[in-house]
């Protein structure tokens, strides 16, 4: 009996203990649900829900003449939620009924997989109940529009499970055109370059937010839980697409023809400081020229003889000389403390300062600077500082504006030969833009303008910020000095002894400027070791009487370059660019009232059958020198034409043809047959092309054709 009571007591005790524990568990459960429930539910949601940013549509960058230089286009990633109610209803009836036709359409439109592969992939993802299956990445808007009409997809998100994730892709429609100046927009904005970096805060807009749920190893958007982004603003630049294309075209032709290393062309509007074009080309390892660096703004080099303008202005401003003062060039060679300076042409004796500038005498300007500034070097330095050669240019491109190196008398590297060497363009480093600002100031009667690249900022087409010309220096020197300097710059081109005479004198408008041929000390190898390497320059403005544009052309040659003098390399590019700008913007056509017979010869290019039909219809007699071939060059004079098979048309599949002179229809026919993609600007015949004739290309590569 006692044993039984003892056992029952123990049972009751265990039961009571279990009851107490149960009550405690229930109490704790109630406490967690009711008292701490909000906290724990929030904790659970935080593990599965997350706000993620929605990038705003980045603003576009436009040229001054209204063309898009950089813009964003939408691209779409397509996901499928295979746990969507519509796909799972009735044992997956919708999915099974549409899978074959869906896989077929996917294969037909995208062509990257067979119908069977698409079907197998989709069925496997369906079986695994994947919640955020990536079906396609980076499809275009047109492809996405087609996809919305696919079987199953057209039933809508809830029934099909299809989800579209939109984002932007940055493109430059003109590809090479001003590519380094416009810049690159990367995911990490700190790595942007050019205007894309300078104006990133305006272009990128304000990001929105989207609530995402973490499911099956991926985040899915939660519908109705979004904060819309604020799109970026548009930038209107000072660049002109015609001038930019001309600058790049002429620079490319010279670089390729002369096998040069790198070069730049900058075109500036004299009165305002607006930069109308910056062309930069550098040779890559495989021999192809690209815009790999902003040489015009970001690379400081020893300028050579174009720096003599700074020396001349200093001497004239201090009234130490006039342009009629005489200077003895001592036969074209002179030593300063054991270091010899010589002219490119020996034998010159006593001549005027004007003639010394036109002939580009190193000895003359080294002697004059040494004579008047050797004992007062700070006065010399103050002139260079006033010309802003000691400062950054102030142009609105972050991290690419090259810092100049101008020695001061307090510098440790200042020596007895510093002034004579600086006077003719050595022992200092400046960018082409620095020198262009000085020449532009002379053209602008002594007023130095700040160079700038952006006209305005627009939001939804409405101008919200406007940039206006800014004067950096009211007068870089006195009016008499400016007037005399203009005479000297004109003499470089007009004088028989001028270094630019033979190249630039043949023109129906006037040009003023200065040539420069600098020996480059590359890789710290000095100036006189092995074969010399030269930098060719020409900086000037036109028309001389009423300057509208100033241009700097600076080209770095290499040991294999055929030409190296400033006039025949940079001067030729200057002349071709200025000719095309003058004819396009400044020349006034002389119209006559009476009609006269056109006896001049006109050349045309096109398909043989088309030309024969046109000439027959117009009653023009023609003679064809070839019986075979598709293409013809036509030479038309009066009412007679001669047809001949073109000799410069590249028929090899991977060699770039010469499209210049073609009509748009013929050019498109030829380039599409070669697998090229074209961007067209203008009307009429092709006057230039972005890919140089005779060079190799890849199928699908883009080419820009300028028509006029």
Keyphrases for this structure?
single chain; 708 residues; alpha+beta; Penicillin-binding protein 2a (Domain 2); Beta-lactamase; 4 domains; 7-stranded mixed β-sheet; 6-stranded antiparallel β-sheet; 31 strands; flat
Helical segment count: 23
Largest sheet: 7 strands, mixed
pLDDT averaged over residues: 83
* Low-pLDDT segments: none
What is the number of beta strands?
Answer: 31
CATH superfamily grouping of the largest domain: DD-peptidase/beta-lactamase superfamily
**How far do the termini sit from each other?**
122 Å
Can you give a write-up of this model?
This protein is α+β, with helices and mostly antiparallel strands and 708 residues long. Helix content is 35%, strand content 25%. It is built from 23 helices and 31 strands. The strands form nine sheets. Strands 2, 3, 4, 5, 8, 19 and 20 form a seven-stranded mixed β-sheet that branches. A six-stranded antiparallel β-sheet has the order 11-10-9-24-23-22, with helices on both faces. β27 and β28 form a beta hairpin. α4 (93-110) runs antiparallel to α5. It is flat.
In short:
This protein has 708 residues and is an alpha+beta fold. Helices cover 35% and strands 25% of the residues.
Topology (elements, then pairings):
Layout: H1 2-35, H2 37-48, E1 49-54, E2 61-62, E3 68-80, H3 85-88, H4 93-110, H5 115-127, E4 133-139, H6 141-147, H7 157-160, E5 162-171, H8 179-182, H9 194-198, H10 200-203, E6 208-215, E7 218-227, E8 234-237, H11 241-258, E9 262-269, E10 275-283, E11 289-290, H12 295-298, H13 308-317, E12 326-328, E13 333-336, E14 339-342, E15 350-352, H14 353-359, H15 362-373, H16 377-386, E16 405-406, H17 418-423, E17 428-429, H18 432-443, E18 448-449, E19 454-459, E20 462-466, E21 471-473, H19 479-494, H20 501-504, E22 512-519, E23 534-542, E24 549-556, H21 566-586, E25 601-607, H22 608-617, E26 621-624, E27 631-637, E28 640-644, H23 664-673, E29 677-681, E30 686-689, E31 702-707
Parallel strand pairs: 2-8, 26-28, 29-31
Antiparallel strand pairs: 1-6, 2-3, 3-4, 3-5, 6-7, 8-19, 9-10, 9-24, 10-11, 12-15, 13-14, 16-17, 18-21, 19-20, 22-23, 23-24, 25-27, 27-28, 30-31
């Amino acid at each position: 009996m006692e044993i039984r009571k003892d056992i029952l007591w123990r049972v009751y005790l265990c039961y009571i203990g279990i009851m107490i524990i149960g009550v405690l568990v229930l109490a704790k459960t109630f406490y967690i649900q009711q008292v701490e429930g909000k906290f724990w539910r929030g904790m659970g949601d935080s593990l599965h829900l997350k706000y993620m940013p929605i990038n705003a549509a980045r603003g576009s960058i436009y040229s001054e003449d209204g063309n898009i230089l950089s813009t964003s286009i939408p691209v779409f990633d397509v996901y499928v939620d295979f746990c969507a109610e519509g796909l799972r209803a009735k044992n997956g009836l919708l999915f099974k009924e549409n899978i074959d036709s869906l896989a077929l359409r996917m294969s037909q439109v995208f062509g990257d997989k067979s119908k069977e592969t698409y079907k197998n992939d989709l069925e496997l993802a369906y079986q695994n109940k994947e919640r955020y299956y990536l079906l396609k990445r980076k499809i275009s808007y047109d492809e996405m529009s087609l996809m919305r009409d696919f079987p199953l997809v057209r039933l809508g998100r809830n029934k099909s499970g299809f989800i579209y994730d939109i984002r932007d892709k940055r493109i430059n429609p003109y590809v090479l055109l001003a590519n380094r100046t416009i810049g690159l927009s990367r995911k990490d904005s700190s790595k942007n370059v050019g205007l894309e970096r300078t104006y990133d805060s305006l272009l990128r807009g304000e990001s929105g937010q989207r609530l995402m749920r973490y499911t099956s190893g991926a985040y899915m958007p939660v519908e109705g839980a979004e904060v819309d982004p604020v799109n970026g603003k548009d930038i209107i630049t000072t660049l002109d697409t015609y001038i930019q294309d001309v600058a790049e075209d002429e620079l490319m032709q010279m670089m390729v023809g002369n096998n040069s290393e790198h070069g730049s062309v900058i075109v500036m509007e004299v009165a305002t400081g607006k930069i109308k074009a910056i062309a930069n080309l550098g040779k890559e390892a495989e021999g192809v020229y690209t815009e790999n660096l902003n040489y015009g703004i970001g690379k400081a080099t020893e300028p050579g003889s174009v720096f003599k303008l700074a020396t001349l202005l200093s001497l004239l401003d201090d009234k130490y000389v006039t342009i009629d003062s005489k200077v003895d060039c001592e036969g074209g060679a002179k030593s300063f403390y054991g270091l010899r300076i010589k002219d490119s042409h020996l034998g010159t004796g006593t001549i005027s300062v004007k003639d010394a500038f036109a002939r580009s005498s190193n000895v003359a300007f080294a002697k004059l600077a040494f004579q008047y500034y050797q004992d007062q070097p700070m006065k010399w330095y103050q002139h260079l500082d006033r010309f802003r050669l000691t400062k950054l240019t102030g142009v609105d491109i972050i991290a690419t504006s090259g810092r100049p190196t101008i020695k001061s008398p307090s510098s440790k590297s200042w020596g007895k030969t510093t002034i004579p060497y600086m006077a003719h363009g050595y022992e200092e480093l400046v960018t082409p833009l620095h020198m262009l600002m000085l020449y532009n100031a002379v053209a602008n009667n002594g007023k130095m303008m700040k160079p700038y690249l952006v006209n305005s900022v627009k939001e939804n087409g409405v101008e919200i910020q406007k940039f206006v010309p800014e004067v950096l220096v009211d007068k870089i020197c006195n009016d008499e000095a400016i007037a005399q300097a203009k005479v000297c710059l004109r003499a470089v081109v007009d004088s028989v002894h001028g270094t630019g005479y033979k190249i630039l004198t043949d023109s129906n408008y006037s040009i003023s400027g200065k040539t420069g041929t600098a020996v480059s000390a590359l890789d710290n190898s000095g100036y006189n070791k092995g074969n010399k390497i030269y930098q060719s320059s020409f900086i000037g403005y036109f028309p001389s009487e009423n300057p509208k544009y100033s241009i700097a052309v600076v080209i770095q040659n290499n040991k294999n370059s055929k030409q190296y003098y400033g006039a025949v390399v940079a001067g030729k590019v200057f002349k071709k660019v200025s000719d095309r700008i003058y004819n396009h913007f400044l020349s006034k056509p002389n119209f006559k009232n009476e009609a006269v017979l056109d006896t001049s010869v006109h050349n045309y290019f096109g398909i043989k059958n088309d030309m024969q039909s046109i000439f027959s219809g117009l009653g023009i007699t023609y003679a064809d020198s070839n019986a075979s071939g598709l293409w013809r060059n036509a030479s038309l004079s009066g009412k007679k034409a001669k047809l001949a098979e073109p000799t410069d048309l590249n028929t090899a599949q991977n060699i770039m043809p010469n499209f210049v002179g073609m009509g748009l229809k013929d050019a498109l026919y030829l380039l599409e047959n070669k697998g090229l993609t074209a961007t067209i600007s203008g009307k009429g015949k092709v006057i230039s092309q972005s890919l140089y004739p005779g060079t190799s290309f890849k199928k699908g590569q883009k080419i820009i054709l300028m028509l006029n």
